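Risk register update: the risk of archive-format incompatibility is retired. Evidence:
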Amino acid sequence: MKAVIFDLDGTLINSLDNIASCMNKSLKKFGFEEHETEKYRYFIGDGSFMLTKRALPQNTEDEIIKKVFDLFINTYEDNIYENTATYDGIYEMLEKLQNTNLKLGILSNKPDKFTKQFGVKFFNNCGFEQIQGQKEGIAPKPDPSGVLDIAKTFNLKPEEVFYVGDSSTDMLTASNAN
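Archived output:
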Protein backbone atom coordinates (compact mmCIF):
# COMPACT_ATOMS: atom_id res chain seq x y z
CA MET A 1 0.00 0.00 0.00
CA LYS A 2 1.34 3.41 -1.00
CA ALA A 3 -1.62 5.72 -0.36
CA VAL A 4 -4.75 6.11 1.75
CA ILE A 5 -7.78 7.99 0.49
CA PHE A 6 -10.45 8.84 3.05
CA ASP A 7 -14.12 9.62 2.75
CA LEU A 8 -14.97 12.85 4.63
CA ASP A 9 -18.42 12.82 6.26
CA GLY A 10 -18.85 10.01 8.76
CA THR A 11 -15.20 9.00 8.42
CA LEU A 12 -13.04 12.01 9.30
CA ILE A 13 -15.74 14.44 10.44
CA ASN A 14 -19.08 14.10 12.18
CA SER A 15 -21.36 16.43 10.24
CA LEU A 16 -24.67 14.57 10.52
CA ASP A 17 -26.32 17.08 12.89
CA ASN A 18 -25.45 19.98 10.62
CA ILE A 19 -26.59 18.25 7.43
CA ALA A 20 -29.87 17.30 9.10
CA SER A 21 -30.42 20.81 10.46
CA CYS A 22 -29.75 22.50 7.12
CA MET A 23 -31.98 20.09 5.20
CA ASN A 24 -34.76 20.39 7.78
CA LYS A 25 -34.64 24.20 7.45
CA SER A 26 -34.94 23.80 3.68
CA LEU A 27 -37.81 21.31 3.93
CA LYS A 28 -39.67 23.51 6.42
CA LYS A 29 -39.37 26.56 4.16
CA PHE A 30 -41.19 24.60 1.42
CA GLY A 31 -43.79 23.18 3.81
CA PHE A 32 -42.43 19.61 3.87
CA GLU A 33 -42.13 17.39 6.92
CA GLU A 34 -38.82 17.56 8.78
CA HIS A 35 -36.96 14.39 9.80
CA GLU A 36 -35.17 13.26 12.94
CA THR A 37 -31.39 13.50 12.68
CA GLU A 38 -30.96 9.71 12.83
CA LYS A 39 -33.06 9.29 9.68
CA TYR A 40 -30.45 11.25 7.77
CA ARG A 41 -27.98 8.38 8.19
CA TYR A 42 -30.06 6.62 5.51
CA PHE A 43 -30.40 9.69 3.27
CA ILE A 44 -26.69 10.61 2.96
CA GLY A 45 -23.81 9.01 1.12
CA ASP A 46 -24.64 9.62 -2.52
CA GLY A 47 -24.28 13.39 -2.75
CA SER A 48 -26.40 16.41 -1.87
CA PHE A 49 -28.90 16.02 -4.69
CA MET A 50 -29.70 12.42 -3.69
CA LEU A 51 -29.94 13.56 -0.06
CA THR A 52 -32.55 16.09 -1.15
CA LYS A 53 -34.52 13.50 -3.15
CA ARG A 54 -34.49 11.07 -0.23
CA ALA A 55 -35.62 13.72 2.27
CA LEU A 56 -38.60 14.69 0.10
CA PRO A 57 -41.77 12.65 -0.49
CA GLN A 58 -41.29 10.03 -3.19
CA ASN A 59 -43.31 11.63 -6.01
CA THR A 60 -42.03 15.19 -5.62
CA GLU A 61 -41.73 17.03 -8.93
CA ASP A 62 -38.22 17.58 -10.31
CA GLU A 63 -38.66 21.36 -10.24
CA ILE A 64 -39.42 21.29 -6.51
CA ILE A 65 -36.51 18.91 -5.82
CA LYS A 66 -34.18 21.37 -7.56
CA LYS A 67 -35.53 24.33 -5.56
CA VAL A 68 -35.16 22.49 -2.22
CA PHE A 69 -31.68 21.33 -3.27
CA ASP A 70 -30.62 24.91 -4.13
CA LEU A 71 -31.94 26.18 -0.79
CA PHE A 72 -30.14 23.36 1.05
CA ILE A 73 -26.83 24.24 -0.65
CA ASN A 74 -27.24 27.92 0.29
CA THR A 75 -28.30 27.08 3.85
CA TYR A 76 -25.40 24.65 4.25
CA GLU A 77 -22.93 27.20 2.90
CA ASP A 78 -24.16 29.78 5.43
CA ASN A 79 -23.82 27.28 8.30
CA ILE A 80 -21.03 25.05 6.99
CA TYR A 81 -19.10 24.39 10.21
CA GLU A 82 -22.03 24.44 12.67
CA ASN A 83 -22.24 21.29 14.82
CA THR A 84 -19.36 19.71 12.87
CA ALA A 85 -16.12 18.33 14.30
CA THR A 86 -13.50 15.70 13.66
CA TYR A 87 -13.94 12.36 15.37
CA ASP A 88 -11.83 11.61 18.43
CA GLY A 89 -8.42 10.26 17.50
CA ILE A 90 -8.44 11.49 13.88
CA TYR A 91 -5.60 13.96 14.31
CA GLU A 92 -3.45 11.40 16.14
CA MET A 93 -4.05 8.85 13.38
CA LEU A 94 -3.25 11.39 10.66
CA GLU A 95 -0.07 12.42 12.47
CA LYS A 96 1.08 8.79 12.51
CA LEU A 97 0.26 8.44 8.80
CA GLN A 98 2.24 11.61 8.03
CA ASN A 99 5.29 9.91 9.53
CA THR A 100 5.11 7.22 6.83
CA ASN A 101 5.74 7.41 3.11
CA LEU A 102 2.02 7.05 2.38
CA LYS A 103 0.32 9.65 0.21
CA LEU A 104 -2.96 10.93 1.70
CA GLY A 105 -6.14 12.07 0.00
CA ILE A 106 -9.80 12.82 0.65
CA LEU A 107 -12.67 11.96 -1.71
CA SER A 108 -16.23 12.96 -0.82
CA ASN A 109 -19.61 13.11 -2.52
CA LYS A 110 -20.03 16.48 -0.78
CA PRO A 111 -19.70 19.29 -3.36
CA ASP A 112 -16.03 19.97 -4.18
CA LYS A 113 -16.17 23.56 -2.92
CA PHE A 114 -17.35 22.44 0.53
CA THR A 115 -14.94 19.48 0.67
CA LYS A 116 -12.01 21.81 0.04
CA GLN A 117 -13.29 24.25 2.70
CA PHE A 118 -13.36 21.43 5.25
CA GLY A 119 -9.88 20.41 4.14
CA VAL A 120 -8.55 23.88 4.91
CA LYS A 121 -10.49 24.29 8.18
CA PHE A 122 -9.82 20.88 9.74
CA PHE A 123 -6.92 19.26 7.88
CA ASN A 124 -4.67 22.06 6.61
CA ASN A 125 -1.51 20.65 8.23
CA CYS A 126 -2.34 16.95 8.01
CA GLY A 127 -0.44 16.01 4.86
CA PHE A 128 -3.31 15.62 2.41
CA GLU A 129 -1.98 15.95 -1.13
CA GLN A 130 -5.39 15.64 -2.80
CA ILE A 131 -8.80 16.78 -1.53
CA GLN A 132 -11.72 16.32 -3.89
CA GLY A 133 -15.45 16.51 -3.61
CA GLN A 134 -18.20 15.99 -6.13
CA LYS A 135 -17.27 17.79 -9.35
CA GLU A 136 -19.09 18.45 -12.59
CA GLY A 137 -18.14 15.79 -15.11
CA ILE A 138 -17.03 13.16 -12.59
CA ALA A 139 -19.66 10.65 -11.52
CA PRO A 140 -20.28 10.47 -7.76
CA LYS A 141 -19.24 7.50 -5.66
CA PRO A 142 -19.71 4.53 -5.91
CA ASP A 143 -18.43 5.22 -9.43
CA PRO A 144 -14.65 4.72 -9.13
CA SER A 145 -13.72 7.77 -11.26
CA GLY A 146 -12.86 10.03 -8.31
CA VAL A 147 -10.67 7.44 -6.55
CA LEU A 148 -8.98 6.53 -9.82
CA ASP A 149 -8.37 10.22 -10.57
CA ILE A 150 -6.64 10.69 -7.21
CA ALA A 151 -4.62 7.48 -7.67
CA LYS A 152 -3.51 8.78 -11.06
CA THR A 153 -2.37 12.10 -9.55
CA PHE A 154 -0.39 10.05 -7.01
CA ASN A 155 1.07 8.10 -9.97
CA LEU A 156 -0.19 4.87 -8.39
CA LYS A 157 -2.15 1.83 -9.54
CA PRO A 158 -5.56 1.32 -7.88
CA GLU A 159 -4.32 -1.78 -6.05
CA GLU A 160 -1.66 0.38 -4.34
CA VAL A 161 -4.34 2.56 -2.72
CA PHE A 162 -6.40 1.85 0.38
CA TYR A 163 -9.82 3.56 0.49
CA VAL A 164 -11.36 4.23 3.92
CA GLY A 165 -15.03 5.08 4.38
CA ASP A 166 -18.04 4.48 6.57
CA SER A 167 -20.85 3.46 4.21
CA SER A 168 -21.89 0.88 1.67
CA THR A 169 -21.29 3.57 -0.97
CA ASP A 170 -17.65 3.72 0.16
CA MET A 171 -17.29 -0.06 0.12
CA LEU A 172 -18.68 -0.18 -3.42
CA THR A 173 -16.35 2.65 -4.45
CA ALA A 174 -13.31 0.73 -3.22
CA SER A 175 -14.52 -2.47 -4.87
CA ASN A 176 -15.33 -0.71 -8.16
CA ALA A 177 -11.84 0.83 -8.22
CA ASN A 178 -10.14 -2.48 -7.40
